[in-house]
Amino acid sequence: MPKLRNLANRTKELDIFLKMAAGDHDCRIMLIEGVSGMGKTSLLSRFRHECPSEVKFVPFDCKGVNSIATFLAEVVVDLGHENFPRFLEKVKFFVQGGVDFSENDIAAEKTISIAINSNVDLATQDYRLEQLQQAFFDDLALLEHRTVISLDTYQDANDSLQAWIETKWLRTVDRRVKNVVTVIAGQSVPNPNNSVWGDNCEHFLLTAIIDIQAWCEFCSDLPEAAIKAAAISCEGHPKNTHQTLSLLIERWSA
Ligand SMILES: Nc1ncnc2c1ncn2[C@@H]1O[C@H](COP(=O)(O)OP(=O)(O)OP(=O)(O)O)[C@@H](O)[C@H]1O
Ligand SMILES: [Mg+2]
């Protein structure tokens, strides 16, 4: 039965990612930009799959997310709330009561939102968010294991979350939390010319894969001429080429 390998090409990106995850690269921020179907999400799942087992991997998707609390909650729950004592202390302090910060991230997010927003004016909300994120960063800086935090579908995060990622999050990863690697993927990504962290990031623009050889390696069981025809007719667009090759595999010998 003919088989497709899981990704054509993208070896350069994987190579750098693995170096970052192993602590062997000179920066810890990766931006992956590309139009729909270029394979950003697929590449992130490949990264996760290939990530060394001693490295924790937190996958986050910005789709439909409109608060920083959601991001903080997901990271805290994924990495285990026992690793965030300073942060949880602040949450408890602001909530002033029983804290349901147990196993699921919806409850955690709700609690953090209450800690930030409940019945207080905007200035107090800003103050609380600042305090919480400082505590979160303090805890993150003390993590013993190397950690990868990926953010997919960046273009769908709302303006305030994008601004936070571009200023606070990337700045902190670059300057303070030396055990954290972050990968941000999207149809748009934070501006890599940022004066604070821009010199310390790898920016990849995913484009069509026009290298026929890469498609032949991806799909070794069809005749080369068929693979070439599929790649040429789809102009190397990864999603379309992949779909066409899958169809051909199904029908070729039928
Ligand atoms: N390098 C590749 N080799 C083979 N197939 C690929 C490759 N990249 C993507 N694909 C195929 O294209 C499909 C779409 O890819 P994916 O969802 O990763 O794109 P995306 O860039 O995340 O798109 P969007 O911006 O819409 O989220 C995947 O299901 C996968 O089958
Ligand atoms: Mg995607």
Explained architecture:
The longest helix has 20 residues, at 122-141. The chain contains ten helices and five strands, in the order αβαβααααβαββααα. β3 (147-152), α7 and β4 form a beta-alpha-beta unit. By secondary structure, the protein is of the alpha/beta class. 50% of the residues lie in helices and 11% in strands. A five-stranded parallel sheet has the order 2-3-4-1-5, sandwiched between helices. It has two domains: 11-205, Rossmann fold (3-Layer(aba) Sandwich); 212-252. The termini are close together. The radius of gyration is 21 Å and the shape is elongated. α3 (68-79) packs across α5. Bound molecules: adenosine-5'-triphosphate and magnesium ion. Residues 7-10, 34, 36-42, 187, 218, 238-239, 242 line the site of adenosine-5'-triphosphate. Adenosine-5'-triphosphate is lined by residues 7-10, 34, 36-42, 187, 218, 238-239, 242.
Fill in the keyword field for this structure.
binds adenosine-5'-triphosphate, binds magnesium ion, 254 residues, alpha/beta, five-stranded parallel sheet, 11% strand, 2 domains, 10 helices, Rossmann fold
Strand order of the largest sheet: 2-3-4-1-5
Helix % is 40-55%
Helix/strand-derived category reads alpha/beta
Report the CATH architecture of the largest domain.
3-Layer(aba) Sandwich
Q: How much is the radius of gyration in Å?
A: 21 Å
User: Beta-strand level of the residues, as a percent range?
Assistant: 5-15%
The CATH topology name of the largest domain reads Rossmann fold
Question: Could you give a short account of the major beta sheet?
Answer: 5 strands, parallel
Instruction: List all distinct small molecules, including ions and cofactors, that are bound in this structure.
Output: adenosine-5'-triphosphate, magnesium ion
Low-confidence stretches: none
What's the shape?
Answer: elongated
| Number of beta strands | 5
Give the rounded overall mean pLDDT: 91
Pfam families: AAA_16
Domain Orc1-like AAA ATPase: 11-162
Protein name: Orc1-like AAA ATPase domain-containing protein
InterPro entries: AAA_16, P-loop_NTPase
